[in-house]
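This section describes the prediction task in plain terms. A model, or a person checking by hand, is given the sequence of a single protein chain and must write out its three-dimensional structure as a string of tokens. No templates, partner chains or ligands are provided. The sample shown here is typical of the held-out split.
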Amino acid sequence: MVKEHPLEKFAYCPICGSKHFVINNFKSKRCEDCGFVYYANPCAATAALIVNDREELLVVRRAKEPAKGTLDLPGGFVDMYETAEEGMRREIKEETGLDIDNMEYLYSSPNVYMYSGLGVHTIDMDFLVHVSNDCKVQAADDAADCLWIPIKDIHPEEFGLLSIRHAVERFLALRG
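The expected answer:
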């Protein structure tokens, strides 16, 4: 598989507008006219593994492409000026209506998220969240539905995004 340079679709220097914006190395392009170097660093993204006392995992059904209609975890991109934790709390609130106080960082993994035909490199950070059985969830934003599924009945292949599928597999492996 030939990997496209992460900045392949960027033809002009964002500083001077020169068309002499060339590959500098595997993650950057350099302007041959003004000398500006632009690095394609990953965007921060989060996903929440929300578990209740009945040993159920809260999953959402994707309302939008990519992978519309498949299972997903609440989460998304961290906004500028947010910490990963603030972004995680905001995404959980937007997609499920839950207000979360405590979460535990689990692990991260590199990912390429396809957005409008462009591969956006991300660093996905996954968090574990424990909630009470009586919490109320309401699907909104990118989530078409919220579902509580017993952890023993979770099937990673039902998650449409490969990065989320891997996060679920890692979570299930941690639980033994």
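For orientation: Residues 81 and 87 are 9 Å apart (CA to CA).
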